[in-house]
Write a structure and sequence with these properties.
about 375 residues, alpha+beta, seven-stranded antiparallel β-sheet, three-stranded mixed β-sheet, 14 strands
């Protein structure tokens, strides 16, 4: 048996060592541990809360639960409305909630990705500078539960009939989609004081008696110390970045305004977990940059031809398909965007942004676009 141990800490702080015979999968985990990759591998921990003998984990119907505290709107008496796939409660009382954390992690670029950071210092010595890292390889996870006492609230449990997936984030997206119109209806009819303060948003399962089993999930997290260490040399960095900033500041106000809008959509798309909304955000980068006062997509093709020295006609199919998909999504003809089209629109947006902000398209960005568009250049 390898020399490793695992411990469980309960809510009171008591620590119990996990017996070796109950440790499963540790060898595989350690064997897969990566050293110095460009991008650290991602981990995930999962569990359940609220289960009992009558409602064992995994035996209910996939569902989504969201609870809002009202803003001094007190429902009395309590109201419960039930449909086959939906329960809505307007109540005053206690709200149960819970989840899972990675205590040492910091929030990453997206809502569901966290990073265990590495700390370190650069020291100046007689033989030059030295970076001394302090890796944190503590991959602890912890569950939490509490009751929010004495609140007026609206609770909605929605059964996801067409789940088609066991992925936590995909189920969260399907739950949000399923309740979008109901929440908007309530907001428009009763006003913003009803769904005023989000208390909890959860994925789990429910039963005939509407018992709620909560799935808990850390989301994706990674350890910074796994990544390859690279040196950013100050003079080279300044020589690379300063001309680009000066070039951007010298643009006329109209072009800077378009680029600014496109960059705002860039960051919105980068953080979005709903793939359909993400697609639209990436496409709005494209429209903001190239489709000025027009709905014609030809300027996009022309720009690509100029940037990549690839004839405009080559781009007619890929760009046209994206625009057609954009129209179907916006007008509600389709609900889910194919993964390949999401990769294509993201690569297209990144290419056009590089052209505007960097004045050139790096080779890795160019190759990513060609691969996503299934274009082979000999």
């Amino acid at each position: 048996m390898a020399d490793y141990r695992a411990y469980i800490t309960d809510a009171t702080g008591s620590v119990e060592e996990v017996p070796p015979e109950k440790l499963t999968g540790v060898e595989g985990f350690l064997d897969s541990w990566q050293q110095s990759p460009e991008t650290p591998q991602e981990f995930n921990a999962k569990g359940w809360q609220g289960c009992d003998d009558r409602h064992p984990a995994g035996s209910g119907k996939p569902a989504y639960r969201v609870v809002y505290k009202t803003l001094r709107l007190v429902p009395y008496p309590a109201l419960e409305m039930v449909w086959p796939n939906l329960r809505v409660r307007f109540c005053n009382g206690d709200v149960q909630r819970g989840g899972m954390r990675v205590p040492t992690a910091m929030k990453g670029r997206t809502a569901r990705h966290h990073i265990i950071p590495e700390f370190g210092r650069v020291f100046e010595g007689p033989n030059g500078s030295t970076y001394l890292p302090c890796p944190d390889l503590n991959l602890a996870v912890s569950g939490w539960e509490d009751d929010l006492k004495a609140v007026s609230f609206v609770e909605i449990i929605y059964v996801i009939d067409d789940a088609g997936t066991d992925d936590y984030e995909d189920l969260m997206v399907k739950g949000r989609q399923g309740l979008a119109s109901l929440k908007t209806l309530l907001d428009l009819r009763i006003g913003p004081r009803l769904l005023a303060i989000p208390i909890t948003e959860e994925v789990g399962e429910t039963f005939e008696d509407w018992h709620w089993n909560r799935r808990i999930d850390t989301g994706l997290f990674s350890a910074e110390s796994q990544a390859v260490l690279r040196h950013l040399e100050a003079k080279a960095l300044a020589a690379d970045v300063s001309p680009l900033i000066e070039r951007n500041q010298a643009l006329d106000s109209d072009e800077r305004r378009r680029i600014t809008l496109a960059c705002q959509w860039y960051w919105r798309a980068d953080a979005e977990t709903d793939q359909t909304v993400r697609f639209i955000a990436w496409w709005l980068v494209v429209e903001s940059l190239e489709m000025v006062r027009t709905t014609d997509i030809r300027p996009v093709r022309t720009r690509l031809a100029d940037l990549l020295a690839i004839p405009e006609d080559v781009w007619r199919g890929p760009v046209g398909k994206l625009f057609g998909l954009r129209s179907k999504v916006v007008h509600g003809e389709i609900w889910e965007v194919p993964e390949g089209q999401n990769r294509l629109v993201e690569s297209l947006a990144r290419t056009l942004l590089c052209g505007r902000l960097l004045g050139e398209v790096p080779d890795d960005v160019r190759q990513a676009l060609l691969a996503a568009a299934q274009i082979s250049i000999r």
